[in-house]
Amino acid sequence: MKKETIPLKLNKSAARTIDLLLLLVSSDKFLTLNNICEMMQLPKSSAFELIQTLLYKGIIEIKDDKQKTYGLSLLAFEIGSSVITNMGIADAARPFIQELNRQTGSTVFLGVKDKDKIVYIDKAENHSTIKPTAKLGSRRNLHTTGLGKGLLYAFCDTKIIEILGEEPYASKTPLSHTNQKEVLEDASNTRLRGYAIDDREDNLDMYCISSAIRNHENESVASFSVASLYSGMTKDKEQLIAKLVKETALQISRKLGFAGNNLYNINS
């Protein structure tokens, strides 16, 4: 983690505490004290104090007593969930993504944009199926994930480039789009189809079909994706899922007050 200069008026301890929580959210594994010191560039004594404070408050917990690894607790999840509940999007979308999961047999994710990332806030899955690796609360690239692309491409080209920043864009697989030309061409194709496709661009085993969700002010406020194994994807299955995704996206958007018919008409 890049070490930041703390502005004069900010509380350094509070800023470091939040940095630690964000680190635990973004990590795909539980972290040791040494991991945290290295990634945050902190002295061991400072990192230890932060950890002990968060343990005492119940925000994090020890995940492995032998290896002394740390991760977020259920209390942290409850805090995050309360924010999502207040947004209203998850409650409105949940019955629809559950039905889509039942219809397709694939895991369905719901997400919202946070700066240049997509945050996974809900999912519907079958316990008997092979599950994608994304976990709730995780932050992924907007331009490589189906969930991210579904939302990103509902913005105009200028906004897309502003959000993604400087080239080259991060690559997750050899199929990831890493420059403006590739991304904007993909965005154009998405708008013509009415849904986005992640063809092994974030995970070589996964094929995802997704769409934006708009609200009563025609804002692109969320997205959802149907995540399937690439090895099991056929043309017929893709066409069926795409049809269901377009229908479901419009249903959820209607629930949020959207009055249009085209979720990818950026001029509407």
Describe this structure as you would to a colleague.
This protein is an alpha+beta fold and 268 residues long. The radius of gyration is 20 Å and the shape is globular. The strands form two sheets. Strands 5-4-3-8-7-6 form a six-stranded antiparallel sheet, sandwiched between helices. The chain has two domains: 12-72, Orthogonal Bundle (Arc Repressor Mutant, subunit A), CATH 1.10.10.10; 84-255, GAF domain (Beta-Lactamase, 2-Layer Sandwich), CATH 3.30.450. It has helices at residues 12-26, 33-40, 44-57, 74-87, 89-104, 146-152, 157-164, 180-193, 235-255, and strands spanning 60-64, 69-72, 107-114, 117-124, 139-141, 196-199, 206-214, 220-229. The chain is built from nine helices and eight strands. Residues 75-258 form the IclR-ED domain. One of its GO terms (biological process) is negative regulation of DNA-templated transcription.
Order of helices and strands: HHHEEHHEEEHHHEEEH
Q: Main β-sheet, in a few words?
A: 6 strands, antiparallel
CATH architecture of the largest domain: 2-Layer Sandwich
Helix content range of the residues, please?
40-55%
What does the radius of gyration come to?
20 Å
Average pLDDT reading: 91
* Highest-level CATH class of the largest domain: Alpha Beta
Proportion of strand residues:
15-25%
CATH superfamily assignment of the largest domain? GAF domain
Count of DSSP E strands? 8
User: Which stretches are poorly predicted, pLDDT < 50 over at least 5 residues?
Assistant: none
The number of domains: 2
